[in-house]
Design the sequence.
C-alpha cells in the first residue's frame, strides 16, 4: 500500500522528491480498507510485488530521483515506548491538561501506547477508565 508522505519534505533541499510511505499488509482486506481511507491521495495505490508490473514500478521508484520512499514500521514497540516516556512526558501531561477533564494527581501516571493507523502514528493515552487517542505529531508540535 502506498500513499504520499508529507513529513518527508526537506525545505532546504533544492531538488524536491515526492515522499511516498509504504505500508505492508499480510491481509489484503486491511490493505483495501487503508486504501479507501486515503482514496483522496494521488499516490494511494495497492502494490502486489508478486505481479511483475507492480514489482517493476517499485524498482523504478527506488532507483529514480523522483521519489523518496519510507516504510511504515515500528521496529520495537518497547523501545518506542521507552523513548516516548523519556522524551515526551511533559508534553503529554500538557496535552492532557489542555484537552481533557482528567484530574490527574502528580503521583498518578498516564499509560501510553502507540498504534499505526493508515500509515499515521497515533498515541493512545489511558488513565483509569478514560482513554484518548491523538496523532503523535500533535505531541511533537508542542
Sequence:
Amino acid at each position: 500500500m502506498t500513499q504520499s508522505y508529507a513529513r518527508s519534505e526537506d525545505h532546504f533541499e533544492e531538488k524536491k522528491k515526492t515522499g511516498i510511505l509504504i505500508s505492508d499488509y499480510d491481509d489484503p482486506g486491511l490493505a483495501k480498507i487503508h486504501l479507501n481511507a486515503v482514496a483522496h491521495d494521488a499516490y494511494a495505490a495497492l502494490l502486489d510485488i508478486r505481479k511483475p508490473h507492480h514489482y517493476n514500478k517499485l524498482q523504478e521508484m527506488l532507483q529514480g530521483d523522483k521519489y523518496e520512499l519510507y516504510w511504515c514500521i515500528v521496529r520495537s514497540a518497547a523501545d518506542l515506548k521507552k523513548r516516548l516516556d523519556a522524551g515526551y512526558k511533559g508534553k503529554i501531561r500538557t496535552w492532557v491538561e489542555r484537552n481533557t477533564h482528567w484530574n490527574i494527581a502528580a503521583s498518578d501516571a498516564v499509560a501510553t501506547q502507540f498504534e499505526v493507523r493508515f500509515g499515521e502514528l497515533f498515541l493512545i493515552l489511558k488513565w483509569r477508565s478514560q482513554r484518548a487517542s491523538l496523532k503523535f505529531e500533535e505531541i511533537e508540535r508542542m
User: Anything to note?
Assistant: Residues 2-71 form one domain. The longest strand covers residues 120-127. The chain has a mean pLDDT of 88. The chain has five helices and six strands.
